[in-house]
Design brief:
The complex is a heterodimer of chains A (515) and B (480). With 515 residues, chain A is α+β, with helices and mostly antiparallel strands. Chain A is built from 13 helices and 28 strands. Chain B is built from ten helices and 28 strands. In chain B, the strands form six sheets. In chain B, strands 1-2-3-6-5-4 form a six-stranded antiparallel beta barrel. Classes of the chains: A alpha+beta (515), B alpha+beta (480).
Chain lengths: 515, 480
C-alpha cells in the first residue's frame, strides 16, 4: 500500500474514533505531566501522535506458573500489565514475558476502558515476543495498525509510550545510544537489541512498552535499567524474524575472542581478526556441519570478523556475527564460514536450523507447560530442570543441591543417551515411607532393576515390583530405598485424600493449548 | 550492674573451695601466631596474638587445644599467681581432635604445680566447673554448669571431624579454650568450643576424656597419627519394607551401608546395601547407635577409640546371609583436603604472572571462588571420588598483570587439566611441566575456553619484573 494512502486512511479512521470518544473531559489534557508538548486531537495529518493513540492497547495478563517442588499444583497467580501494539488485522504485538504462563488475557482500550479477552496467536520465548488476538475481532474496530520502522541508527531519537491512569498517553523521548547483540531475558539467547537512553517513570503496566519514531514502531521495550536510565529495545530485525518464522535458527557454537598474540602465534593464525570456537552444542547445526572445537572462524558469508567476532553491518555498524546466523538467515538457510583448522584455511557451509530442544536434559526455561511427576507411595519424583532449581531463589546456584546444579550446568557433557535426570524431590510422609523422611533431592538410577531416563520410565518400571518390593537405586546416599508394592497400592487412596493430590502422576509435560 | 555483682561474687565464693589446688595446675598461654594469606601465598602472613588456657598433666606436659597454638611462632606460658612468662614449645598437636601438648623449656616452671588427673564421662545433669581466662584477662575465671548432653559433634577447628563431645550449660568463651573442666577434683573434659551469642546461649562444649585419652595414647610412640575411619556412610533401617527386603527380622537392629568410599578402610570389604548388625560384639540399633557402659553412642565410637592398623570386627548381612568381616582401619586421606589445615605454608607456582595453587579448605576460606566446577569438585571430592582423577584440585588462582599475560582470558579459578599434554594431578606436576623447556606452554583448563598459551621466551623475560613488582621472594613453594 502506498504510504500516503495509508496515512489518509488512518486519518479518517482516527477522526471517526475521536468523534466516538469526543466526550473526553478536558482536565485530562491539563493533568498530563509529559514534558513533550502534546498536540490536541484536532491537529493535521502529519502529526504522529494522533495515529499512535489509536494503535496501542492495554494488555492485562493473569499468569500462574507451576510449583516445581509440588508439581501437582500451581503457584499463586499474579498479573502483569503492558501495552500491546496493533500491527495488523487483529494482531497485537507484546513481549512474551507479559503473557508467559498466562491463564487469562484481557485487552483494555485506554480511552474508554472497554475490555475483551484475548488469546495467543504465536509466542517465542527466544526473542521474548508474542502476538495476541482479540477473541472478538469487532472489539478492535476503529483501531489503526502501526507501521514498522526498520531503518534506525545510533543517535536517532525514539519515544516510549506509556498510559497514564486517566487513559492519556505519556510520551518520553529518548535517544538510541548503541546497537548490539545482547542477551534476551527468558532463554538468554543473544539477539540484536537497541539501547535507548531514556528517563522513564515507573508506571503500572510497564511490561511491554512500544518505542515509536515518526509514527512508526521502532521496537518493544524489554527491560529498563532505572539506575543508568537505559532501556533495551527489541528491534525490527528481530520482530521481522519472529513474524516470519517464529523460531530463530541457531549455529550452536560458543567462542572466545582471539586477542592474545601468543595464542594467535601458537595456532598459526596469520590473518587479522577471527574468533576461537570453544564448544559445539551437541546436535546443533554447527555439529551437523562438522565444525569443531578449536576451529577459528575468520569470516561469515564473506564478511570478515574482527577478533571479538564482529562484522561490519551495512545498517548497524559493528555487530556480532551471530546476528547473521540467528536473525538475518531464515531457519533452514545457509551460512558460509571461512575457518582456520590445523593451520589451513577452509570453507564450511552450515545449514542452520532452530535448536532441537526436545531432548534437552535440563531445560533452562519452561513456560505454559506442566511439569511431569510421579508419586510412588509418597515419594515425589520430578525431572530436573532449571525452573526446578530456581525454586531455591535468586541465589539458586549456591543454595540448590550442588549435585543437581552441577548436572544442570554441565549437561552438555553427559552421554547423549543419558535421558532426563530423575530426582526424588521430596517424600510425603506416610506409613510406607517411615524412616525415609530426611531424604530429598537425590538422583534416581534404577527402579526395580530398570534404568530410569524419564518420568514415563519410572511409571513403567513401577508396574514391575521385584519380589513384592519397589526397589529404588539412587546415585548417592542412601543408595537403596525399598517400598512394599502391595502396601503402596492399598494406601494410595488414603495418600491422595490426605495430601489432597489431584493425581499421583503426570507422565508427559502437558502444554496448554498453543499452536 | 549492681544486680550482676552479687552473682559474680557468689560464683567466685563457691568455686573458691576447689580453686586452690586446681589453680596450681592452671596455665595461661599466650601465643603469637602467623596466619598465611592464601591470596598472597608468597607472603609469610600477619602476626596476631591470642590467649588460651591449659593445664599441667603428668610428665611435665601442658595440655591445651590445638587451636590455641596453631600457626604459633612464639609461645609463652605463665602460672596462676606467678607473673613470670616462660617460653614453651608444641610437643604434639592433633588438629583433628583439637588437642595439643606443650613443653616448657625451663623445668623449673613445673615447681609447685601438681599434675591434674583425668576422671571419666560425667553423668548427665551433674555439675562441672570450667577454668580459664575467658575474653582475655590475667586472672583465673571459674564458671559452673551442668552436663546437658553427650553426643557426637563436629569439631570446628578442623571443620570435618566429629567426635564424642559433652555439652554443658556454662558459657565457653575465647580464652576458656584449653582449660580444664573439673568434677570432684578430676578433669572430665577440655573446654574447646561454643556458639556466638546470637546462635545459642548457655551452650558450651568440652572434649571428653575418651578423646583426650586416645590422643595421649596415640602420641606415646612420639608422634601423632590421625584418627582412623571406616570410610562409609550408613542409613537407619526403620522402614519395615526395607527391613523385609533386606531379609531382616522386625527387631530394630542393623543399619544399611550407603557409600563405601574408594581407597578407604572398608573399600573392597563392605558394599552398598550391606547391613551392619554388630561391631566388636556390640549390637547395632536401627538408628546406628550402640549401648556402652556410659550410655548410647553412635557405632563409630568403637572405631574412634582404635588406632591405625587395628581392626573393627563387623557382623553383616549380605544377600540375606549373615557373615563376619574384619576391617583393618586406616586414615581417610581424601577427607583431609576438606579439613582446615594449620601449621602449613601455602603452596604455589607462579609462571608468567599466572598463579597456580592447590585448593583446600584454607584456600576456599580466603578466595570464595564462584567457579561451579571447582566448588562441586571440592564438595564432592570424597563422595564422587573426584580424587581418582585429581589428587589435588590445582587451579589458576590469580593473574598478576604484566604484558606477558595482558591478553590471557578470564580463567580465574578454573581447574587445570593439562599443560603441554601432561595431566595435572598435583601442584608438583605444574612445576615439572614448566621446568621442562618448551617453546610454548599450552595450558588446558576444565572450563570451556581456548587454551592459555605462554611463550617461554616472553615468560623468562618478564619473570624478574613480575617478582619485583609484586614483592615475591620465590617463584614457587612446593613444601607444606
Amino acid at each position: 500500500m502506498n504510504p500516503l494512502l495509508r496515512l489518509i486512511a488512518f486519518c479518517i479512521l482516527a477522526q471517526a474514533a475521536v468523534l466516538g470518544g469526543a466526550f473526553q473531559p478536558r482536565f485530562q489534557q491539563q493533568s498530563q505531566p509529559t514534558p513533550v508538548p502534546s498536540p490536541s486531537p484536532a491537529t493535521s495529518i502529519e502529526t504522529p501522535t494522533q495515529v499512535t493513540t489509536r494503535s496501542i492497547i492495554r494488555v492485562n495478563s493473569t499468569n500462574q506458573a507451576y510449583d516445581y517442588q509440588s508439581p501437582w499444583q500451581k503457584k499463586p497467580s499474579y498479573s502483569r500489565r503492558g501495552l500491546g501494539v496493533l500491527i495488523g488485522e487483529n494482531r497485537i504485538l507484546v513481549t512474551a514475558d507479559l503473557v508467559a504462563n498466562s491463564n487469562f488475557i484481557e485487552l483494555e482500550k485506554a480511552a474508554t476502558g472497554e475490555k475483551s479477552t484475548a488469546t495467543i496467536e504465536r509466542i517465542s520465548y527466544e526473542c521474548n515476543l508474542a502476538i495476541l488476538r482479540a477473541t472478538n475481532p469487532i472489539f478492535l474496530y476503529g483501531m489503526i495498525p502501526l507501521p514498522l520502522e526498520g531503518k534506525v541508527s545510533i543517535g536517532d531519537s525514539a519515544t516510549v509510550l506509556q498510559i497514564e491512569p486517566n487513559g492519556e498517553l505519556a510520551r518520553t523521548p529518548g535517544r538510541i545510544s548503541s546497537i548490539s547483540v545482547a542477551p534476551y531475558p527468558l532463554e538468554n539467547l543473544g539477539l540484536l537489541a537497541f539501547k535507548l537512553s531514556i528517563p522513564l517513570q515507573q508506571r503500572d503496566g510497564s511490561f511491554t512498552l512500544p518505542a515509536v519514531r515518526d509514527d512508526k514502531l521502532v521496537g518493544l521495550l524489554m527491560r529498563y535499567d532505572a539506575r543508568n536510565q537505559t532501556a533495551d529495545i527489541i528491534p525490527m530485525p528481530v520482530i521481522s524474524r519472529f513474524l516470519d518464522s517464529v523460531k530463530f535458527p541457531r549455529l550452536g557454537v560458543s567462542y572466545s575472542p582471539l586477542r592474545d598474540p601468543q595464542l594467535r602465534r601458537y595456532i598459526g593464525l596469520k590473518e587479522p581478526g577471527g574468533i576461537y570456537v570453544t564448544k559445539i552444542s551437541p546436535k546443533s547445526s554447527a555439529a551437523s556441519a562438522g565444525l569443531r572445537e578449536g576451529d577459528v572462524i575468520l569470516a561469515v558469508n564473506g564478511l570478515p570478523l574482527d577478533q571479538d567476532g564482529n562484522y561490519e553491518d551495512a545498517e548497524y555498524g559493528r555487530i556480532l556475527f551471530s546476528h547473521i546466523s540467528s536473525t538475518l538467515t531464515a531457519p533452514g538457510g545457509k551460512v558460509v564460514l571461512k575457518i582456520l583448522r590445523n593451520t589451513k584455511i577452509e570453507e564450511i557451509t552450515v545449514k542452520i536450523e532452530p535448536m532441537d530442544r526436545s531432548n534437552t536434559i535440563s531445560p533452562s526455561f519452561i513456560a505454559d507447560a506442566a511439569p511431569p511427576y510421579f508419586i510412588l507411595g509418597g515419594m515425589v519424583f520430578v525431572e530436573l530442570s532449571r525452573p526446578y532449581l530456581q525454586e531455591w531463589g535468586v541465589e539458586w546456584t549456591k543454595n540448590a543441591p550442588q549435585r543437581l546444579v552441577n548436572y544442570d550446568a554441565f549437561q552438555d557433557e553427559l552421554p547423549t543417551d543419558r535421558g532426563k535426570i530423575i530426582v526424588l524431590a521430596q517424600i510425603l510422609p506416610s506409613p510406607d515411607t517411615l524412616g525415609y523422611d530426611h531424604i530429598d533431592n537425590v538422583v534416581v538410577k534404577e527402579l526395580n532393576g530398570r534404568p530410569i531416563k524419564s518420568i514415563a520410565d519410572l511409571a513403567e518400571a513401577a508396574k514391575h515390583p521385584v519380589e513384592g518390593f519397589q526397589k529404588i537405586e539412587l546415585e548417592e546416599d542412601p543408595k537403596w530405598l525399598f517400598l512394599d508394592a502391595a502396601s503402596i497400592e492399598a494406601n494410595r487412596a488414603e495418600l491422595i485424600k490426605h495430601y489432597a493430590l489431584p493425581a499421583t502422576e503426570r507422565l508427559d509435560s502437558a502444554t496448554s493449548a498453543l499452536p | 550492674m549492681t544486680r550482676l555483682l552479687p552473682l559474680a561474687l557468689a560464683l567466685c565464693l563457691s568455686a573458691w573451695t576447689h580453686a586452690a589446688p586446681i589453680a596450681e595446675s592452671l596455665v595461661r598461654i599466650e601465643a603469637a601466631s602467623q596466619e598465611p594469606n592464601y591470596k598472597t601465598p608468597w607472603s609469610p602472613g600477619t602476626v596476631v596474638s591470642g590467649v588460651g588456657a591449659g593445664f599441667v598433666i603428668d610428665g611435665d606436659r601442658i595440655m591445651t587445644n590445638a587451636h590455641v597454638v596453631s600457626n604459633a611462632r612464639f609461645l609463652t606460658v605463665s602460672k596462676e599467681g606467678d607473673p613470670k612468662p616462660y617460653t614453651a614449645r608444641v610437643l604434639h598437636v592433633a588438629h583433628d581432635c583439637d588437642l595439643a601438648l606443650l613443653k616448657v623449656d625451663k623445668a623449673e616452671f613445673f615447681n609447685g604445680t601438681s599434675p591434674l588427673e583425668f576422671g571419666g564421662l560425667p553423668e548427665i545433669e551433674s555439675v562441672v566447673s570450667v577454668y580459664g581466662y575467658p575474653i582475655g584477662g590475667k586472672r583465673l575465671s571459674v564458671t559452673r554448669g551442668i552436663v546437658s548432653r553427650i553426643d557426637f559433634q563436629t569439631y570446628s577447628h578442623s571443620g570435618v571431624d566429629s567426635h564424642l563431645t559433652i555439652q554443658i550449660d556454662a558459657a565457653i568463651n575465647p580464652g576458656n579454650s584449653g582449660g580444664p573442666v573439673m568434677q570432684d577434683g578430676k578433669v572430665v573434659g577440655v573446654a574447646f568450643q561454643g556458639y556466638s551469642g546470637d546462635v545459642a546461649q548457655n551452650v558450651g562444649y568440652m572434649i571428653p576424656v575418651p578423646v583426650v585419652e586416645r590422643f595421649l595414647k596415640d602420641v606415646e610412640d612420639g608422634k601423632y597419627d590421625r584418627y582412623i575411619d571406616l570410610a562409609i556412610s550408613y542409613q537407619n533401617l526403620f522402614n519395615p519394607a526395607a527391613r523385609r527386603a533386606l531379609g531382616l527380622e522386625d527387631d530394630d537392629r542393623g543399619v544399611m551401608v550407603g557409600a563405601v568410599y574408594g581407597g578407604g578402610s572398608s573399600d573392597g570389604i563392605l558394599k552398598a546395601g550391606d547391613v551392619l548388625l554388630e561391631i566388636d560384639g556390640y549390637p547395632i540399633a536401627s538408628d546406628g547407635s550402640i549401648r556402652l557402659q556410659n550410655g548410647v553412642v553412635p557405632l563409630t565410637e568403637i572405631v574412634e577409640r582404635k588406632f591405625r592398623g587395628e581392626k573393627a570386627k563387623l557382623v553383616i548381612i549380605r544377600d540375606r546371609k549373615k557373615q563376619t568381616v574384619a576391617v583393618p582401619l586406616d586414615d581417610p586421606w581424601p577427607f583431609t583436603l576438606q579439613s582446615n589445615a594449620y601449621d602449613e605454608k601455602p603452596r604455589y607456582v607462579i609462571y608468567g604472572g599466572l598463579v597456580f595453587q592447590p585448593v583446600d579448605r584454607n584456600f576456599l576460606a580466603t578466595h570464595d571462588p564462584s567457579n561451579q566446577r571447582l566448588n562441586y569438585s571440592f564438595d564432592f571430592f570424597v563422595e564422587d571420588e573426584i580424587y581418582r582423577d585429581r589428587k589435588e584440585l590445582v587451579v589458576l588462582s590469580n593473574i598478576l598483570p604484566d604484558p606477558v599475560n595482558a591478553h590471557t582470558g578470564d580463567f580465574r579459578y578454573s581447574l587445570i587439566n593439562e599443560i603441554n599434554g601432561r595431566r595435572i594431578q598435583t601442584l608438583q606436576d605444574v612445576a615439572q611441566a614448566f621446568a621442562k623447556p618448551e617453546e610454548y606452554y599450552v595450558i588446558k583448563t576444565a572450563d570451556v575456553g581456548p587454551p592459555i598459551v605462554l611463550e617461554r621466551k616472553a615468560v623468562l623475560a618478564s619473570t624478574e619484573n613480575i617478582l619485583k613488582r609484586y614483592g615475591i621472594a620465590s617463584e614457587q613453594n612446593l613444601e607444606k
